[in-house]
Each structure stands twice: as C-alpha cells, then as structure tokens.
Design brief:
By secondary structure, the protein is mainly beta. It is built from one helix and four strands; from the N terminus they run ββββα. A hairpin with a 4-residue loop joins β2 and β3.
C-alpha cells in the first residue's frame, strides 16, 4: 500500500484568481476572475497492487521451453 498526500493553497479558501481594475478618461473597467486552480485542495491517494496469476519458481520457464522440439505448431 502506497499512500500519498497533496496539499495546495491551504490558506486560500476563496475562488478568486485575479482582480483587474482600469481607469481611463472615458470609462472604468473592473474584471474579476474565478478559478478552481487557486482554491484550497487536499487530496489523498492510495495505491495497492494485487498479486495474481500462477506462482512459478525461478528457472521453471526455461525447463518448460527446452522440451519443445520444433517451432511449428501442431
């Protein structure tokens, strides 16, 4: 079992990414950007490998292959 943790932006609990304000002679502009990339994130991942298949002894594969006399299938 192999657990891993990921913590991102744990101090940022809002969704605001960027706030831009522009003032000009003829108009003003205020732009607010929201993003999921700037929000706090906690992730736990656990991986586990199941062992399966037939158990063989080291060296058994060569003994079985040496008994084949021909590469032609019958």
């Amino acid at each position: 079992m192999d657990p891993s943790w990921l913590w991102n932006n744990f101090a940022c609990w809002n969704w605001r990414s960027e706030h831009t304000v522009m003032h000009s002679l003829y108009y003003d502009k205020s732009e607010q950007t929201f993003s999921i990339n700037d929000h706090a994130l906690a992730r736990l991942s656990v991986t586990y490998t199941f062992s399966f298949g037939k158990k063989v002894q080291r060296g058994d594969e060569a003994a079985q292959q040496s008994s084949i006399a021909s590469g032609i299938l019958k």
